[in-house]
From TrEMBL:
Note on cofactor: Binds 1 heme b (iron(II)-protoporphyrin IX) group per subunit.
Subcellular location(s) per record: Secreted
Family: Belongs to the peroxidase family. Ascorbate peroxidase subfamily.
Residues engaged in binding substrate: 468
Positions annotated as active site in the UniProt record: 370
Binding residue positions for Ca(2+) 1: 371, 374, 376, 378, 380, 392
Pfam families, alphabetized: peroxidase
Listed transmembrane segments: none
Name the UniProt record assigns to this protein: peroxidase
Disulphide connectivity of cysteines: 339-419, 372-377, 426-620, 505-530
EC number annotated for this UniProt entry: 1.11.1.7
Length: 627
């Protein structure tokens, strides 16, 4: 049936003619690509609706985040919190922690309606809650994480479980730890997730006892709260959970409030009250990146609480296994018999192009990066727009930025002529041209594994969502690379590609005017070519201040001296987990070369099309049916 087991409304139970699979393992939840085939615009639709709702009312982000919390803590992440009362059960909205408190239901219903219009009966309300929570955090400047998908919606709700399982605002530390432990969380998870109170508001009825009766509270803070929350009456009056000036920003200031004895709820302040969690609170005060990283990990963990699994998730898992094995079908000698001249032909054209313009080496390398990070290394970035293809060339990270397409065309023509027929895929051309560009500028050589086929489609939405942006924080960069199967070392190593090439003023303006972790003289130099107002947003600056036309390790030396051109570059020297590698590569070029080659091979193995999947394009800019 088209509707499957997803409810047509998130609030009303509809009986559909299909089987309900309950109790399957959480490992069967799948990454954010779960809806790519059945509803490819699902995630971008949710994101747009969340951004609009938060734009109208900043507090809505906290409300949507809280809905996901209160859903997962009762029977697991199954959207039971959304169900209205029926003759058979009383919904969870009436529970003491939820009554006159939970909100955002209208936003969820709007999202569900929009998704039902474009792909009826596909996206569950439980998945909507999980994605909306993530997008709400991002909308207020917080970290991004990959939301596992494939949940189905519960047929029932439990008022009793909601009253018993949701942690109350008056709990002491021991009881809070127990409440989270009962759901499989560590103490570290609990403290990190409590950081969600850096946004949102609380009702007077939930903090009145604290501000009038407790002693571990700043007196002036208590007095200001008493003006909002009188000793009697005004139970629904609201106060911000984060008392700083950043109540609408997802940051670490909540923990600073705790250190200053300005936690609004009793359950907040017990996290810093001469107890076992004091040190973790202080760590988050001192290291905001650590908080964002731990919060993202804990949110992924929370989203996996007892989900109901879709049968399509099992199908997806089988497909994923097939996809993973595709990389093993690639081989450095793939064209040894069908076109032995292929690699030498590509190298000749690349060397000539780089000799004409050294910058072209960086451009060809970047094409391969931006191809692989969007649905795998399949040549999709090369496709021009058509009536059915929304070209990735128009994505925000690519528009007026990616280049080298003419060189790829030249390579394709030369290779097909050398082979006598179209044997070599455009995806393989990108992979080999990236390697040959690095070598042409003095960098390392590696064996490129070959045998990829070309995609017959492209995705502008995925390009906008999956490519790492120049304004990303270190936690966002780590999450982004992790989503593509790349670890923190790969992130640092592959970022070294910025030892060649240029960046547009548009991409580094915020860094040179607003960031503090930048060399003042260096910032002043860049401001000369990139004024705060006016000027040419396309004016270029070299990403490597000393040797932009030579592939070396000077990029890391720039970071050590706070001369990273992009915010995302300098962030690599702003984290305990990546600082060491940056410093190592700044003086160990040989180590950088060796690791860069390994990570390029790893990146080139991201979801290749092999066997009978995809095609060998006759023209790299068009799928064969349009040629």
């Amino acid at each position: 049936m088209a509707a499957s087991m997803t409810t047509l409304s998130c609030f009303k139970l509809r009986i559909c003619l299909s089987f309900c699979l309950v109790g399957l393992t959480l490992a069967q939840l799948q990454p954010s690509t779960f809806y790519d085939n059945r509803c490819p615009k699902a995630l971008v639709t949710i994101k747009a609706a969340v951004n609009l709702a938060v734009l109208k009312e900043r507090r809505m982000a906290a409300s949507l985040l809280r809905l996901h919390f209160h859903d997962c803590f009762v029977q697991g992440c199954d959207a039971s919190v959304l169900l209205d009362d029926t003759a058979n059960f009383t919904g969870e909205r009436s529970a003491l922690p939820n009554r006159s408190s939970l909100r955002g239901f209208n936003v969820i219903e709007n999202i569900k309606s929009a998704l039902e219009f474009i792909c009826p009966g596909v996206v569950s309300c439980a998945d909507i809650l999980a994605v909306a929570a993530r997008d709400s955090v991002v909308a207020l400047g917080g970290t991004w994480w990959d939301v596992n998908l494939g949940r189905r919606d519960s047929r029932t709700a439990s008022l009793t479980d909601a009253n018993n399982d949701l942690p109350a605002p008056f709990l002491d530390l021991g009881n809070i730890i127990t409440a989270f432990s009962n759901k499989g969380f560590t103490v570290q998870d609990m403290v990190a997730l409590s950081g969600a109170h850096t946004i949102g508001k609380a009702r007077c009825t939930n903090f009145r006892s604290r501000i009038y009766n407790e002693t571990n509270i700043d007196p002036s803070f208590a007095k200001s709260m008493q003006e909002i929350c009188p000793i009697s009456g005004g139970g629904n009056n609201l106060a911000s959970l984060d008392v700083s000036t950043t109540i609408d920003q997802f940051d670490n200031r909540y923990f600073t409030d705790l250190v200053n004895k300005k936690g609004l709820l009793h359950s907040d302040q017990v996290l810093f009250n001469n107890g076992s969690t004091d040190s973790q609170v202080q760590n988050y005060v001192n290291n905001p990146t650590l908080f964002q990283t731990d919060f993202a990990k804990a949110m992924v963990k929370m989203g996996q609480l007892s989900p109901l699994i879709s049968p399509n998730a099992m199908m997806f898992a089988a497909l994923a296994t097939t996809s993973l094995s595709s990389a093993s079908l690639l081989s450095p000698n793939y064209y040894g018999h069908s076109c032995p001249q292929a690699l030498s032909t590509i190298r000749r054209v690349v060397e000539n192009a780089v000799q004409r313009e050294p910058r072209m080496g960086a451009s060809l390398l970047r094409l391969h990066f931006h191809d692989c990070f969007v649905n795998g290394c399949d040549g999709s970035i090369l496709l021009d727009p058509t009536s059915t293809i929304d070209s990735e060339k128009n994505a925000s990270s690519n528009k007026n930025s990616v280049r080298g397409f003419e060189v790829v065309d030249e390579i394709k023509e030369a290779v097909d002529k050398a082979c006598g027929k179209p044997v070599v895929s455009c995806a393989d051309i990108l992979a080999v041209a990236a390697r040959d560009s690095v070598v042409a500028l003095g960098g390392p050589r590696w064996k490129v594994r070959l045998g990829r086929r070309d995609s017959t489609t492209a995705s502008l939405d995925d390009a906008n969502n999956n490519l790492p942006a120049p304004f990303f924080s270190i936690s966002q960069l780590i999450s982004n690379f992790k989503n593509h199967g790349l670890n923190e070392k790969d992130l640092v190593v592959l970022s070294g590609a910025h030892t060649i090439g240029f960046a547009r003023c548009f991409f580094f303006k915020d860094h040179i005017y607003n960031d503090t972790n930048i060399n003042p003289k260096f910032a002043k130099k860049l401001k000369y070519i990139c004024p705060r107002k006016g000027g040419n947003p396309d004016i270029l600056a070299p990403l490597d201040t000393a040797s932009a036309a030579r592939f070396d390790a000077a990029y890391y030396g720039d970071l050590v001296h706070k001369k990273g051109v992009l915010h995302s570059d300098q962030e690599l020297l702003n984290s305990d987990s990546t600082d060491g590698l940056v410093k190592k590569y700044s003086y160990d070029a040989e180590g950088f070369y060796k690791d860069f080659a390994k990570s390029m091979v790893k990146m080139g193995n991201i979801k290749p099309l092999t066997g009978n999947h995809g095609e060998i394009r006759l023209n790299c800019r068009k799928v064969n049916q349009y040629h």
